[in-house]
Description:
The complex is a heterodimer.
Chain A lengths: L11 H13 L3 H10 L7 H27 L16 E14 L11 E13 L14 H4 L1 H7 L31 E9 L3 H14 L7 E6 L3 H10 L4 E4 L1 H15 L3 H16 L3 H15 L11 H15 L5 H6 L7 H14 L6 E2 L2 H13 L5 H7 L22
Parallel strand pairs in A: 1-4, 1-6, 4-5
Antiparallel strand pairs in A: 1-2, 2-3
Helix pairs in contact in A: 1-2, 1-3, 1-14, 1-15, 2-3, 3-6, 3-14, 6-7, 8-9, 8-11, 9-10, 10-11
Chain B lengths: L13 H19 L10 H28 L5 E2 L6 E2 L8 E7 L2 E7 L2 E3 L4 E3 L9
Antiparallel strand pairs in B: 1-2, 3-4, 5-6
Amino acid sequence: MALRIDGGSYSPLVLTKAVVAAAHVPSYPVGAKLLEVVGGISISSRHLNNLTVKVGSEMAADRDACTAAYSEQPLPRKPCQPKTPIALACVSVDGGRMQTRLDGGGPGVHDPHWRETKNALFSRMNDVSSEKDPHPELPACFRDRHRMKKLLPGVETLEGDLTTVPQEAAGPRSQHPKWRPESLFRTSISSLAKSDTFGTMMAAEADSRGFYRAANRAFVCDGLPYNWTIQKTHFPTFVPILDFVHAVEHLYAAVRCLRSNDEDIWCLHLEWAEACWQGRVRRVIEQLRVEQPRIGEPPCDADENDPRKIVADTIGYLQNNASRMDYPTYRRQGLPTTSSLMESFVKELNYRVKGTEKFWNDGRSGEAILQIRAAALCDDHRLESHLQNRPGNPFRPNARRHPPAVTNAS
Amino acid sequence: MGMDSRNEDLALPPLAKQKFQELVALLAETGFGPEGPSPDTDFATIERFGHQAGQMLGRAIDVHLVAQHAEHFQEGVCPTCGATDDSNALARGKTRPLQTQDGTIPLAEPACRCPKCDRTFFPSADGVTD
């Protein structure tokens, strides 16, 4: 029965267009220009900034309310039913970085510093489980030196390199059965919150999607300890999986410390990467342990780039994550083995929030842009939905709120 | 290609449809004369005129409907304390510019005054956030 408008100068539909534009373009000035030229809507970039922060803060408050409601449920919690049956629910978490400045420091950049963002992806995926391991051999991309050069620092390619595997040699894609699960519907959250708070936010989001009632559940991430703490605390029924690409990166770094010849490095790397792919990580750890004495144990004050420390750290990394590297089983169960979707999501998020010239206030505006951008990347149109369902405000900013204070005229 | 919501016509009864056609003819004649556009008129000129007329109509409909909507709010209950202001909210109403998809309209809102809080509120807006 009511108009659901506030004291602002934009109608709800114009506000929706403005904030959605601000979420998708790289900057507010670009958003303002686009709105004027394409949408015929006149708005300054500063005003667009303020509106976006306002709406993003509302979304952060809504998220906190949902998280609190989830936390305060009587135990044992009753997981929500999914709206659509879920064959595989995959949760991923990863950190990102954004530049921030002192909140309330006035115009300009004061106390510039990097802050870590926490990002989580929730994907409903299809079922590709099979009786046998559908892909026991290391995928061609990991054998391709040219492709790995982008991923692994120091990979050298030679003229007429035989280890380069062209796509044609691997056969057309259609001939291969699809053994990697595909994302059917995704939502995401992002925040500057600490990991324990973020873990609860993740649990609330996963529950709202009905992920705890999915037929199969997976939790994929890199090997950072706080990720596994979140998994153990909030997602204990999800299969924890270490991103295979991160494992490969660690392996390559260690192999470079153990061999000097490029060919020897590449051959040993392939051997160990394939061993991990085939679930023989403990064998790799044994071999690394045999190699370690040859270069020596790292001293306590070893530099990060000390080869002895790199090898020791790799042993520790693989040891800590060995139970989450049973890749043949994951492939049979149709679970993902890499966090590539998460990595792509972080790139999409960074398109809006990360840049040498971008500084967000370390507080409200930083958190707000993360809400807006993450919501804009969700498949459930939650940004548009929030904007179209905002309550109105019966007061106006220009209305007198209190009797005017008595002041001494001077 | 997805559905383009701009192509969804309103379901008008016959009389409204006839009046609509008459309005279209009137506006077209106003823009281009009784003979219509001259041979050297490009499509962009026609499209621009049609769009401008549509926006004008859109703004007029917004203003008309908001005025009708305001009739429901002759009195209001203070969102803060619950006290009722039954004086004529419409008479006390305030008008401010609101930017819509079709341009800026004068938005007339009925205004109430809470006798207890001594504060103006706008009952047609809804919500209690502040």
